[in-house]
Amino acid sequence: MKAERGEVSSNPGLWRLARTFLRAAAAGLLYELLKDLVFGQITRAQSHAMTVAVIGLAAVATHFLVHRNRAALRAEREAEFRLLFANNPLPMWVYDLETLRFLEVNG
């Protein structure tokens, strides 16, 4: 399935994830460019250890930001669904499959 040009801009959740990825990539690139200037007198092994530590921290931060963005997107979609459910002119209901008890009915 080929993505259309306007698909990313019309999907705010996908756009948020793309921005998070781009920020993490930019931070990693900036670190690599400035590493030799700031830490000029360290050995190659120390440089590799520092790089691994920074990449690990960036991965954790990216994971946190993506998880937070997904939670916000989920809440946004749930609010949209509730609005559609509540304002639908056709009768709709949600019930428990085990007890067959109504959980919610639109009005």
What do you see in this structure?
This protein has one domain. It contains three helices and two strands; from the N terminus they run αααββ. The protein has helices spanning 7-10, 12-38, 44-87, and strands at 93-95, 102-105. Strands 1-2 form a two-stranded antiparallel sheet. The longest helix is centred in the middle third of the chain and has 44 residues, at 44-87. The model has no long low-confidence stretch (mean pLDDT 80).
Strand content: 5-15%
Tally of extended strands? 2
Q: Uncertain regions: pLDDT < 50 for 5+ in a row?
A: none
String of helices and strands:
HHHEE
Q: Regarding quaternary structure, how should these chains be classified?
A: single chain
Shape: elongated
Strand order of the largest sheet: 1-2
Provide the gyration radius in Å. 23 Å
Secondary structure elements and their pairing?
Elements: H1 7-10, H2 12-38, H3 44-87, E1 93-95, E2 102-105
Condensed summary:
The chain is mostly helical. 70% of the residues lie in helices and 7% in strands. A hairpin with a 6-residue loop joins β1 and β2 (102-105).
Main traits of this protein?
107 residues, mainly alpha, two-stranded antiparallel sheet
